[in-house]
Specification:
The complex is a heterodimer of chains A (174) and B (111).
Chain A lengths: L7 H10 L4 E4 H8 L8 E5 L5 H11 L3 E4 L4 E4 L12 E6 L2 E6 L8 H4 L4 E5 L2 E5 L2 H11 L2 H19 L9
Helix pairs in contact in A: 5-6
Chain B lengths: L6 H12 L3 H8 L3 H9 L6 H10 L13 H11 L3 H20 L7
The chains are: A alpha+beta (174), B mainly alpha (111).
């Protein structure tokens, strides 16, 4: 789904407001590092531990999140609860601010616990955004082997290379 | 795919990926840390054989293939690296809006 209302900042604001532990991955994460490719959804890897699923559920309800039904191509309303979000699944959602994917265990990783170790905090106009390391984003895309991801990999490798050359430019990360 | 002019970063990435310290990598290569650091910092260019050996010592195999160099891609990436992450996101969103506008366009015959 391509939404004209795609507003990733709003999704990130609500996640922050609700104190949700997560790491941003996927195309938006790549874009913050400098990827030249546009994306039309937000992918996050949430922390399934403790009361984080509860906070995530509150955030999803605030965002009007619906589960995307790929066969009917519509969003299905859900009353989000911690119990629904405590697993290791993949949720494909649509929200008032655009498509949002919850990827509890990104391919090639063991999930939040591992990815969050190398996360980089980006300052997005005063908003602190936890983003998976570019290396982890690449690793996950390599493992997933989705055609779109595979197509973007050469550019991400090149990005990593050019960032290495210009280490420190405008970035908070290591 | 890494190009050989970035041999130092390739070695650094391989080493970090494998969790080795510079000292540990040097030990595996039978050399000293004082050789590894200049490689990674770009102060000294390692030979191609050294790159292969270092990557292998980290537990990886260096694969290579020839692909066309795309200066247009570098231009896009360098443009993004020259601005802040917030500006990168904004540029990406603006680009996305333009793409969606273009996707709405239909050949006149289809309307």
């Amino acid at each position: 789904m391509i939404s004209d209302d795609f507003d990733p900042k709003r999704v990130l604001e609500v996640l922050e407001k609700r104190a949700v532990n997560y790491v941003l991955i996927g195309g938006i994460g790549s874009a913050l590092y400098g990827s030249p490719y546009p994306t039309f959804d937000i992918d996050i890897c949430p922390d399934p531990a403790g009361d984080n699923p509860e906070r995530l559920a509150i955030a999803l309800n605030e965002l009007g999140a619906q589960e995307w039904d790929p066969r009917k191509e519509v969003g299905v309303p859900r009353d989000w609860s911690a119990a629904m979000l405590a697993g290791d699944g993949l949720w494909i959602l649509v929200t008032d601010a655009g498509p949002l994917d919850l990827v509890f265990v990104p391919e090639g990783t063991s999930g939040y616990g591992e990815i969050s170790l190398n996360k980089v905090i980006f300052d997005l106009d005063g908003q602190m955004i936890p983003v998976a390391s570019l290396e982890d984003i690449i690793r996950s895309k390599e493992a997933a082997k989705h055609p779109k991801d595979v197509a973007h990999l050469p550019a991400l490798h090149r990005l990593q290379e050019l960032r290495d050359r210009q280490q420190g430019w405008n970035d908070p990360g290591p | 795919m890494q190009s050989i002019d970035d041999a130092g970063s390739l070695i650094r990435r391989s080493r970090r990926k494998s969790g080795l310290s510079q000292r540990a990598l040097a030990r595996k290569l039978g050399t000293s840390q004082s050789l590894i650091a200049p490689w990674e910092n770009g102060d000294v260019s390692p030979s191609f054989d050294s790159v292969i050996a270092a990557v292998r010592a980290c537990g990886f195999e260096l694969q290579s293939h020839h692909s066309a160099y795309d200066p247009g891609l570098d231009r896009l990436i360098l443009r993004n690296l020259a601005v802040s992450p917030a500006e990168r996101l904004q540029q990406m969103l603006n680009g996305g809006r333009q793409i969606r506008a273009l996707q709405r366009a239909r050949p006149v015959d289809d309307q």
